[in-house]
Amino acid sequence: MRLFVVGATGRTGSLVVQQALDRGHEVTAFTRRPEAVGLSHPQLHVARGDGLNVADLSQLDGHDAVLSIVAAPDRRPTTLAEQVARNLVRAMSAAGVARLVVTSSHALVATRPKAALLLVRALLRHAYADARNMEAVLRASDLDWRIVRANRLVDGPGVGSVVRMPGGRDFDGGLNELSRADLAATLLDVVADDALVRQAIEVTGARLP
After folding, report:
1. Model confidence over 111-167: pLDDT tens digits?
2. Residue 171's pLDDT is what?
């Protein structure tokens, strides 16, 4: 597949790019900072641009799918994820590219643990509002979107085992840490899975013995 990766120089996005290349995909890393890509590969192309500029996103023309790993960077009011989603809908519709995978947060739909959720939702209320609005933009579109909701992301090597649940479900035993490497692998699995068109899924790390 020809994959267009938005957020390609972030901690998860850079892993998506590397793993996609390892799987034999052709990849365009879309970033404001091409010098930060740090990879050289015959199947890798680097596109300079900003997801807040819909004209820059026209570079996705000719690709098979888009993966967008965008999240608010702090606790201030923001519309970053929502605006990038709106621009992707416009650019992808114009280019005839339908397949889109985005990351979101499991905290939007989780119901437990209640005390911890109340605290984190208060602290990150602006980021979660942005993520919720982003999801609404996609649901109202005609794209073949897929939403992957995760939490408790950590750096480090993947363990190769991820627990997936249908959208809106809680995990038995709570949410475990999920490595960004395993999230990246999940995103690449999801973009190729036709059974997940216009669905959200919840993901967490496997409980280790």
Report:
1. 888 888 889 899 999 999 999 999 999 999 999 999 999 988 999 888 888 989 999
2. 83
